């Protein structure tokens, strides 16, 4: 079983007006002192009402974190979102950017922009259940353009963003093939690098057709690590209970026996990574330990 992963980005040619607007805005950005600029460490919240309605102003937004959000009320004009996180990496190609629009986001199109070329990521009012869109950090930046509206009073464009390190073999695997079983090496790396690592059994699996997710109810009898309080004490037993999500297409079903569940927090949700049967993990760990190849130490009881 593998953790859920966002679908590939949706590409579509931008309308000519958007491309002309973008080129004009980039020129203005270099020499116009009247432009409005906003910056914050992780998240930005602003309003298009600060712009004159007849002008197509651009707002420059600078974000320095690996996760956060954008909330643009009464969108008019456009935003250029500059993600410049304080991360240590040998190359931008080691990072993937994912965005998740707010449930009722409306009033603007979200594009991926590089050297004046626009590719549509999220159209205005797109409420598709597969709402996470990912792209490589070096593919370009985010350009958010308000669409013409007769009434902007109820429009809010917003999304969460995350940067994911795909520099390790395990992270690269989860991005490229979320349903393929893990290799022994990937399991051992996942044990060392995941946000949560627990031993437990599957109590139930609930398929959410609309969201294209499967929700796994897990009974946990040992917690090796959890970044957030995903698994909480169970009232009916001495263990813990919690939920992990994965892609519906992976076809997860309840199975007997113990598993080692690993995974990452993704937009506030626990997403499944490698999940071998525990007896298989014990075998992998012992074989690597005998060869001195374990990337980290963890109990196998």
Automatic annotation (TrEMBL):
One of its GO terms (cellular component) is extracellular space. GO terms for molecular function: hormone activity. GO terms for biological process: energy homeostasis; positive regulation of brown fat cell differentiation. Residues 1-34 form the signal peptide. Keywords: Disulfide bond, Hormone, Secreted, Signal. The keyword Disulfide bond applies. It is found in: Secreted. Its main location: secreted. SUPFAM superfamilies: TIMP-like. Belongs to the meteorin family. This is Meteorin-like protein.
């Amino acid at each position: 079983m593998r953790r859920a992963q966002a679908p590939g980005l949706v590409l579509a040619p931008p309308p000519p007006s958007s491309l002309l607007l973008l080129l004009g805005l980039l020129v203005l950005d270099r020499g116009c002192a009247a432009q409005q600029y906003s910056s914050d460490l992780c998240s930005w919240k602003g309003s298009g009402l600060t712009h004159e309605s007849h002008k197509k102003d651009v707002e420059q937004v600078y974000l320095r974190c690996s996760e956060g959000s954008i909330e643009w009320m009464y969108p008019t004009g456009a935003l250029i979102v500059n993600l410049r996180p304080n991360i240590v990496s040998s190359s931008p190609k080691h990072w993937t950017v994912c965005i998740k629009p707010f449930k009722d986001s409306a009033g603007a199109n979200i594009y991926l922009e590089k050297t004046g070329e626009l590719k549509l990521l999220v159209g205005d009012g797109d409420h598709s259940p597969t709402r996470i869109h990912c792209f490589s950090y070096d593919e370009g930046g985010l350009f958010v353009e308000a669409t013409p509206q007769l009434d902007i009073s109820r429009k809010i464009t917003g999304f969460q963003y995350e940067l994911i390190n795909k520099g390790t073999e395990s992270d690269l695997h989860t991005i490229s093939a979320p349903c393929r079983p893990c290799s022994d090496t990937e399991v051992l790396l996942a044990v060392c690098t995941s946000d949560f690592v627990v031993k437990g059994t599957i109590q139930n699996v609930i398929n959410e057709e609309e969201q294209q997710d499967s929700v796994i109810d897990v009974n946990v009898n040992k917690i090796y690590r959890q970044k957030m309080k995903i698994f909480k004490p169970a009232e009916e037993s001495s263990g813990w209970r919690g939920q992990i999500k994965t892609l519906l297409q992976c076809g997860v079903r309840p199975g007997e026996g113990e598993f080692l569940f690993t995974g990452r927090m993704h937009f506030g949700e626990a997403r499944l990574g490698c999940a071998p049967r525990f007896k298989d993990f014990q075998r992998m760990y012992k074989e690597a330990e005998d060869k001195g190849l374990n990337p980290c130490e963890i109990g196998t009881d």
